Amino acid sequence: MKIKNKLSLLPTNPGCYLMKDIKGTIIYVGKAKNLKNRVKSYFTGAHNLKTTKLVSEINDFDIVVTNSEQESLILELNLIKEHRPKYNIVFMDDKTYPFIEVIDGDNPQIKVVRTKNVKGRIFGPYPNVISARETARFLELLFPMGREEKVPNFYEEIGNKIVSENNDDYKKQLDKIYRFLKGDIKEVVDALVDAMNYYSEIMMFERAAIIRDQIEHIKNTTEKQIISLNDFKDRDVIGIAYNDEDLAIQILFMRNGRVVDQHQNVFAFVGSPQEFALSYLIQFYEVNQPDELLFSNMFDNEDLTIMKNAIIPKKGDKKKIVDLATKNAKMDLENYNQLYRNKHEKKNQVIDKVKALIGLESIDLIETFDNSQLFGTAPISAMIVFEKGDFNKKKYRKYHLKGTNVDDYAAMQEVIYRRYQKVLLEKLPIPNLVLVDGGKGQVNIAEEVLKQLNLEVMVLGLKKNNKHQLENLIYQDKELIISDDKDIYTFFSKISEEVHRYAITFHRTTRKKHAYSSIFDKVKGLGPKRKKALLKTYNNIEDVYNATEEEMNKIGIPKAVYENIKEVLKSEISNQES
């Protein structure tokens, strides 16, 4: 149900998804141009064996939204390298996406590299290796920076038009290259488009096609991304979003300039959201803190003096990646509200309807009783607790009733008295409402006992039909029709089913122990140890009776005792049949 609800809230943005197993371990990382369509596809239709196995192990998933498909490609690589998910194969080696390095000096160079141990300035990374290489070669042709090309180069003519003054001054060409690799490609692309159109007009279509392809490589290479920065620093990027009730924190962990993981949490807060968030982060970073912590402008610099290396970037890539973390935090908050707040609100609405029906201001604590016996055998009673909107199984109670011929009224009288005498003596919370399994008789008995104990608690009866299904409520000798309201009927029906389940389970266990102990006590030579072996091995008396001497011998029952067991059980079964 959790996955189904989360699937309905997925965005159509590009990003990465992290599939988790029941232990919370990341078992697969993927990227998507449209997260909603891609993640949903795992849970619909047929798949190959590997995907089917993956889906069978998925217990939950997280997403990280990115600004572009290229960012999702780079983030996918970073996440796979960090988590090594068992269902991912590609990118498991130590290779990285390439960078473009520009080396200034006597022999200026532009080349593609895969390491941070470089001599010049680097730009990237770039997911498309071919486009990166084509772009690096193109820049060398466009801006030769004093190098002499032996092959005629029409690109240099285009570069000369871009750098119209002092064409031989490679410093100006270098400046154009830096601007280009930072993402300012308009001037270069416009010059290429003009050249492509010119060559088309003079019917040099082959050259025009080469320029067209080069424009495409440039766009693939220089598409702006902020998932990896080329300063190779360790930093955490903190995004925060909040409303009147809840606060979401999304932390992107950037190591060596790459986003490699994320942490997300949503919780209710009190007081100032800024102070509450800082309190959380101070504890989070109590042991270890990276080189930088990037915050949004929801904080002032004075607020962050307590956090070491805290920065509020105003512009540039750092500001953009903070915006991305904040975008993810806002999405976490919105999804949380839809998944949990709506569910909580609906539950409160149903409880309000129940309170209006029976005229109570509060039903924070409901205690419900059910009795069970079989022809006077092993009479028991069970109590379940519904507290603050949920079943509280830690407070469930079981009662062995006194006597052997206890009718339902006597059982109800005994258990209500025992329970609420203890409530008074131990000063336990008094329930707002008591529910009893039964009709007017059971309700009257419960009310009478509570009155004797000077407790003013409303009592309702859970009246059932001949199929043991809830039909209506009994209240002050009147029958309340609840079947017309689905919400109210479901509310009381769940309580009725739970108390019946708990009582029946307890009664079966009690009856089995009672029957076995009373019968086996008659068997000569069957002491406590051998009796325990029987109870552990066989489910009922018939199984014991039908067991062979060899089977009995394996659990330590000698031949003489085996024969005594058979004789006693034969007599018992004959009595039951007659």
Quick structural gist:
This protein is an alpha+beta fold and 578 residues long. 47% of the residues lie in helices and 20% in strands. The chain has helices at 2-8, 35-41, 49-57, 69-83, 129-142, 154-162, 170-181, 186-201, 205-222, 273-284, 316-358, 408-425, 440-452, 486-520, 528-537, 541-546, 549-554, 559-577, and strands at residues 15-20, 26-32, 60-65, 99-103, 109-113, 121-123, 235-242, 246-255, 258-268, 292-294, 310-311, 365-374, 377-387, 390-391, 397-400, 433-437, 458-464, 470-475, 478-480.
Would you write up a description of this structure?
The protein folds into five domains: 2-83, GIY-YIG endonuclease (3-Layer(aba) Sandwich); 99-222, no CATH class; 235-336, Ribonuclease H-like superfamily/Ribonuclease H (Nucleotidyltransferase, domain 5, 2-Layer Sandwich), CATH 3.30.420; 365-512, Nucleotidyltransferase, domain 5, CATH 3.30.420.340; 521-577. The protein contains 18 helices and 19 strands. It has helices at residues 2-8, 35-41, 49-57, 69-83, 129-142, 154-162, 170-181, 186-201, 205-222, 273-284, 316-358, 408-425, 440-452, 486-520, 528-537, 541-546, 549-554, 559-577, and strands at 15-20, 26-32, 60-65, 99-103, 109-113, 121-123, 235-242, 246-255, 258-268, 292-294, 310-311, 365-374, 377-387, 390-391, 397-400, 433-437, 458-464, 470-475, 478-480. Strands 12, 13, 14, 15, 16, 17, 18 and 19 form an eight-stranded mixed sheet that branches. Strands 9-8-7-10-11 form a five-stranded mixed sheet. It is elongated.
